[in-house]
Amino acid sequence: MMASSFRDCKAWRAGGLPLSTSSNEACKLYDAILTQFVKWRNDETLGGFEGCISALQEADPNFVMGHVISTGLELVSTTSSTRLNERLASAVRRTVELANSQDISPREKLHVKAMELFSRGHFPKACDVWEDILVDHPTDMLALKFAHDAYFYMGAQTQMRDSVARVLPHWKPHMPLFSYLNGLYSFGLLETRLYDQAEKVAMEGLALTPDDAWAVHSVAHVYEMKAEVDKGLKFMESREKDWQVQPFVLRKTCKISTGSMLDTVDACSMLCRLEMEGVCVKDRWRELLQVTQPHTDDHVTLFNDMHFLMASLGAKESGTSQRLLEGLQELAKEPGDNQQHQLAGTIGVPMCQAIMEYDQGNYNRSVELLYPLRYRVVEIGGSDAQRDIFNQLLIHAAMKSENKRHQKLGRCLLVERDAMRPSSPLTERLMQRALALHN
């Protein structure tokens, strides 16, 4: 039996979010999965995500919201594409069929619709539907969290912030998961460059819940964006015992964990950044390729694609790199409703080509492809800190280019960077390098 702290049928009803099932156990398991999702924690004491999902399916195999949360989680983890994964595609169809054959609430119907739209890559429309739910049900944490993740994948920074701001007044401190709103809101503030407010809101959340991983993560981002390296290191060290118990976001890779793909792309980015700085990481690329290669044909998000490409180029696996690019070019021809594939032609493909040109030492061409896109890179999703790798790539390409104008451009970009993040050790190093290269 699931712990009494989780909400049963009656508690969900009392909270104005009734669930269409007569099984109290199913309601509690739904709550347990939602709680782990919000906390970024695969809680082994509950049996983790996988344990809870299988128990939920046993408790009530026809519980529509049970299917919505378990299939939805797999979809937002971006680890699999319904185009290629028949099991996942049929899980989506099954949810839709169940919803059509039962008398469920309008809110639950909307949840099914949003999940189905998201499964087809129609991210903006899925977000519209989640926002529709939140107008009438501002305390529906699943709608809020799914929308937050989808906005993140679209680089919709303002929406990510405002989506949480709109519901905040409706939440009360006694409500389950209340304190985690701070981390969500803080991240939106941070991504719209309201750093001081972002830090303040995250700290308020951490005062309530010291081990809120998303809030810790948000503060770490603030220090990174302001290039306050020492402050950031001190903060992370002082909080180590809190974030160490969060294997989900930091190092654990369970099959449907929303953290696993973020871990993978961040590992690709880390190696690429180290390589640009002149660190030899070549054996590490081979290790990482084992994880990224199976996803070559997924094309769930452009952000993922570009990072998988870094891994295949780093591991000198030119066949895989070529296949990834050609697959993307193919999807760009007939994108349908898929928002990421619609952007593939104008942003995804040229950026992948720029990364490949850089890898081949064609810095001139790399600059020509990247420079016109620099203010559109936000559309591939991720955070400012993650996307900074493309700013760095452009600067490195410009500095290494034979073209004198490009070299000048590289120096201009460094001046611009210095204005936004004064006293950044990275900018300092790059400026020194530019001087050494071009004198």
From TrEMBL:
Stated family: Belongs to the TTC38 family.
UniProt KW Translocase keyword: no
Gene: ttc38
CDD domains on file: StaR_like (cd05804)
Keywords: Repeat, TPR repeat
Domain of life according to the entry: Eukaryota
Protein known as: Tetratricopeptide repeat protein 38
SUPFAM superfamilies reported in the protein's UniProt record: TPR-like
Organism whose genome encodes this protein: Sander lucioperca
InterPro entries (alphabetical): TPR-like_helical_dom_sf, TTC38
Presence of the UniProt keyword Nucleus in the record: no
